[in-house]
Amino acid sequence: MQGGAGIPRDEHGELHPLLGPIHEQDRGRKCLVLDLDETLVHSSFKMISNADFTVPVEIEGSVHNVYVIKRPGVDEFMRRMGEIYEVVVFTASLSKYADPVLDILDIHQVVRHRLFRESCYNHRGNYVKDLSQLGRDIETSIIIDNSPASYIFHPNNAVPISSWFNDPHDTELTDLCPFLAELAEVEDVRAVLDGGL
């Protein structure tokens, strides 16, 4: 369970990593993989009176409004992480919902890559985010996710975070910033994130 299947191959046997080439400004940076739902935002089909924004999503021919509230500190967290990491959002949600949410959420335009449900590995009924398929060095890849099942293949690359729904006094994203700034400087993140957090 310490690793996934590695970089997938296409029908010609060529390696086909989930992420494209590293942008020039991200060379030398570690890869920070962020979950979306209950980590950065909370969304609901039920009306939320204090929603930060609403996105229309088409489901089976009819359009439904999804109400989205942002976790406290998310804008500054994203800005700061974008200064020191190659930022990837990897969600088990469908792109028709997550794409418009990220279009609005990513106000500082720091998210370099977006991965959705079809990029997850289905393991015993769970959507697992297999870091070995990204095409980035595993020792420099970090995942922040509220669901331990998402990083079951790579617990030593994970920074756990609690599930967030609507607590306006939550400070976890803000509190993580100094730790993540230090983690960006270590050679192998797995030496720090030993799965025992």
TrEMBL record:
Disordered, as annotated region = 1-20
Which Gene3D superfamilies does this one have?
HAD superfamily/HAD-like
Q: Which residues belong to any copy of the FCP1 homology domain?
A: 25-183
Q: Which Pfam families match?
A: NIF (PF03031)
Q: According to the lineage, what is the superkingdom?
A: Eukaryota
Q: Kindly list the biological process annotations in GO that this record carries.
A: cellular response to amino acid starvation; negative regulation of TORC1 signaling; positive regulation of transcription by RNA polymerase II; response to salt stress
Q: Which CDD domains match?
A: HAD_FCP1-like (cd07521)
InterPro entries tied to this protein: Dullard_phosphatase, FCP1_dom, HAD-like_sf, HAD_sf, TIM50
Output the Gene Ontology terms for molecular function: phosphatase activity
* NCBIfam families recorded: HIF-SF_euk (TIGR02251)
Name of the protein: NLI interacting factor
